[in-house]
Amino acid sequence: MKVLIVEDEAKTGDYLRKGLTENGFVVDLVRNGVDGLHLAATGDYAVIVLDVMLPGMDGWSVLRELRKARDTPVIFLTARDEVEDRVRGLELGADDYLVKPFAFSELLARLRTLLRRGRNTQAEAALSSADLELDPVRRRVARGATRIDLTAKEFALLYLLMRRQGEVLSRTFIAEQVWDMNFDSDTNVVEVAIRRLRAKMDDPFDRKLLHTVRGMGYVLEERE
Predict the structure, then answer these.
(1) What is the phi/psi pair of residue 91, to 5°?
(2) Is the pTM of this model over 0.90?
(3) Where are the domains of the chain?
(4) Which top CATH class is 2-121?
(5) 38-54 b/e with 16+ CB inside 10 Å = b?
(6) What are the pLDDT digits (tens) for 131-166?
(7) Cα-to-chain-centroid distance, residue 80
(8) For residue range 120-132, what is the model confidence (pLDDT) as tens digits?
(9) Distance from CA of residue 36 to its chain's centroid?
(10) What class has domain 126-220?
């Protein structure tokens, strides 16, 4: 599940990215309003965390322009705690408003509440392939009646594969989407993650769903 953070305070932005990544989200982080609006308007995000006081374009303006084209859930995260500021944010189309300083656990709970509301149904819908099911909101994976416990990265990897099932995904694409990193041909992080994921959700079962396409990448699909 992909989240956009628009936050100019380096410490806060890095803290949010680390915390959300550890909880299985794929995170993009930008530090000014212009880049934030561009990504928000063109990217496929489940939710956006938006600061108000930003260089280039403030959060009010970002949201005002975004609402002309997109209905992506937005939560304001800002030090502006006056009632008028909260009212203004909500009237512009924000879905929630959290004042700094904040507890990360509360932000995480609010993000998950927004996702459960169903405004972004494509990002929230349960995914399935044969007897494999993934619930992105409850963060549950199962094959038939068997629950499968995954780490945050394994969950993010499987979520990507299931959203793009039937497509062969390259190692470069997977590294960029799941680890937010430029692919280094000398690293085997993707292969290791695929191997661990396969050991949990494929190897114990007769029907194999995760396949290697030699020289190209990986694909999740049901085959005869």
Answers:
(1) -70, -30
(2) no
(3) 2-121, 126-220
(4) alpha beta
(5) ebbeeeebbbbbbbbeb
(6) 999 998 778 999 999 999 988 889 889 999 998 899
(7) 26
(8) 444 457 899 999 9
(9) 16
(10) mainly alpha
